Structure formats: structure tokens, C-alpha cells
Amino acid sequence: MIKAIVTGGAGFIGSHLVDALADSGAEVHVLDNLCTGHSSYVNKQATLHRHAVESLEAKELIVRLRPDVIFHLAAQADVQQSLKTPAYDAQVNVLGTLNMLEACREGGVRKLVFASTSGVYGDLQKERIEEDDPVAPISFYALSKLAGELYIRLFHRLFGLSYTILRYGNVYGPRQQAKGEGGVVALFTDKLRLNQPLRIYGDGEQTRDFIFVKDVVRANMACIGQGDQQTFHVGTGRPVTVNTLVRELERLSGTSLAVTYDPPRPGDIRHSCLDNRKIIGTLSWQPSYDIASGLRETYDYVKSDV
Ligand code: NAD
User: Fold this and answer.
1) Looking at the domain covering 3-169+212-235, what would its CATH class be?
2) Catalytic position from the list 141, 151, 163, 299
3) How far apart are CA 251 and CA 248, in angstroms?
4) Is residue 212 helix, strand or coil?
5) Among residues 241, 303, 294, 306, which one has the least CA distance to residue 16?
6) Which of 27, 156, 173, 262 has the smallest number of CB atoms closer than 10 Å to its CB?
7) With a 6 A CB cut-off, is 96 part of the ligand 1 pocket?
């Protein structure tokens, strides 16, 4: 039986990963300070430890537990927040990641799997971005994630810690809150539930690679015994416009939605689509949800969660 720690395991993506790990029979520990997460999301078979990832307590916990693998998802994950408070962003995302790495070294942890972002490429204009394309973040959030990646690679080089870096597209699904990175689906379904107009920044023709949370979980699970020292995209390889999202939601809800268009915001990226051939070829992972099936499951969840 493997022993796993999921940092951010009370959050949107982390809590789904904890469910999958618990289902697989793993011993699961969640390290989360609940600043955006919820204890109610944490699987009953997992143990919740309420500490900040950048704290001494968190480091001591890892050294004591000596897990086989750490899935490091805890983060300040809100792009707009990172522009307002870059130092806090760095505290959690850079110093927090460094603290986890030092804990891995002291605790003899074999592997760390890191939740990174397609945001590291900034506004790179390319139809499908590949993993070795140049990085150039345009938000402090993406910069802090890139710094995390660089620390991880250096820890491998200096101390032999194994890692897999997963750069996610825009993740959506049940339990996502109506804020944070990639929160557009959650925002829209929330407005739909409240019967309020949807607000789009820009003309709505900006594209994203929307990936359903259960596919992201399977990508993380696939890293347990493979993919060491590799960086992979976790995306569908298919660009979807924000206007398409609106049309899909109209179809699901059977209503016509009111939309307001506002100017684009700083830090927002125009087009983003991830080439996923590397993860498909190396980890035998495939996205199993397209935007229609993923939105259907998300919409059903939002409707039942009132
Ligand atoms: P989330 O906010 O739902 O989850 C983050 C979790 O981390 C929360 O439970 C929160 O309480 C916890 N946390 C925050 N700061 C902490 C700290 N200092 N110490 C301990 N715990 C802390 O966000 P999410 O969307 O589930 O994102 C999970 C990870 O995936 C993040 O690392 C994020 O950067 C990354 N990511 C998300 C997306 C997306 O579209 N949602 C895209 C790319 C990457």
C-alpha cells in the first residue's frame, strides 16, 4: 500500500485526487490550511492536517510521515489575486514549494508530483503549445509556478528527488469555486444558478484548453510509478472559446443567457491550447471527457448542490 500526501487536498482538484487515491487503497494524508479549501470535501478515509505548506509544522509532518509520494497542489491559485499581492503569492507558491522540497529531502520522500500551469507560456501565440516551447509568464501567479518548477528540477539534480511536473490547462468540474485560475466555468454555472448575467472580459473569442477534473486526477495517478523527471501537459489539445461555453450552457439549461462584455483584464491570456501527445505517448493517458460531457457532469452537480 502506498502512502501519499496531497497538499491542497481540501481544494477543488486536490479533493478529487484524494478520492481516487483512497479508492485505490492508498493511505492518504491531506495537508491544507483550508484558506480556500473545505474540510467537507476531504474523503473520510483520508487524514486532514491543517497547516500552511510554508510552515515548519508542515515540514515536520512530512518528515514524520515519510510518504512514498507527495502530490503538491496547495497554492495561491488566483491570477488576479497574484497581481494584487505578489509577495503573498510567492510566499505560498515559491517558499511553500521550497519547504515541501526540503521536507522531501529530510524525510526521504521518493517522488513529488507538481501541479503547474499552462500559464507559464504567457501569451505565446502558437496553435498547440509543446512542453519545450519557451516560457514567459505574464502574471505573478504563473511566475511563481515556474519558479516552483525550477526549484523542483534543481532538487532532482542536486539531491536525486524524483518528480513529475504536470502543466494543467483550464481545469473545471464539480467543487470548483467561482474564483481562482480557470474559474470561468464555475463562474458561469454560478451565475446561471443565481439567474444573473454572465460577464465576459474581452470579446469571448479567447480560447482555452478546458480539461475536466477527473481527467486531471487520472493524469496524477498515472505518475505514481512512471513519468519520472518529465514535464507533461494535461489538456485536451482542443481549443474552446468562451462564447462556445456560453452556447453549451444554454443548451444544457434550455435557457437563453444574458451576457455582458467588458474590456480584457491585465494578466489574461488570449489563446491557449496544449499539445498532449507527450503524456498520451509516455503515460498512456487520454482525456476521456470532451467539453459537452464534462460540462454536463458539472452542471448536474451545480443543480444538485443547492
Ligand atoms: P483550490 O484553491 O481549490 O485549491 C487549493 C488548495 O490549497 C485549497 O484547498 C487551499 O485551502 C489550499 N491552500 C492554499 N494555500 C495554502 C497554504 N499556504 N498552505 C496549505 N494549503 C493551502 O485550487 P485548485 O483549482 O484545486 O488548484 C489546485 C492546484 O492546481 C494549484 O496548485 C493550482 O495552481 C493548479 N492549477 C489549477 C488550474 C485550474 O484550472 N483550476 C490550472 C492550472 C493549475
Assistant:
1) alpha beta
2) 141
3) 5
4) strand
5) 294
6) 262
7) yes
pLDDT of residue 208: 93
Among 137, 157, 151, CA closest to 267: 137
User: For residue 158, which amino acid is it?
Assistant: L
Q: What pLDDT, on a 0 to 100 scale, did the predictor assign at position 271?
A: 87
Active site residue 299: no
Q: Tell me if 92 sits within 8 A of 46, measured CB to CB.
A: no
* Residue 163 to residue 111: CA distance in whole angstroms: 5
Residue 268 has a pLDDT of 76
Residue 22 has phi, psi (to 5 degrees) of -65, -40
pLDDT of 303: 86
What's the pLDDT score for residue 306? 60
* Under-50 pLDDT residues of the chain: 181
Distance, CA 103 to ligand 1 centroid (Å)? 19
**Separation of first and last alpha carbons in the chain:** 37
Helices and strands (DSSP H and E) totals, the chain: 11, 13
Q: Which residue has the cell 519557451?
A: 134
Cell of 287: 482525456
Strands 240-241 and 207-208: what pairing?
antiparallel
Cα distance between residue 8 and residue 54, in whole Å:
12
Q: Is 149 in the pocket of ligand 1 (CB under 6 A)?
A: no
- Angstrom CA distances, 36 to 52, 81, 120, 124, 279, stand at 12, 13, 23, 30, 29
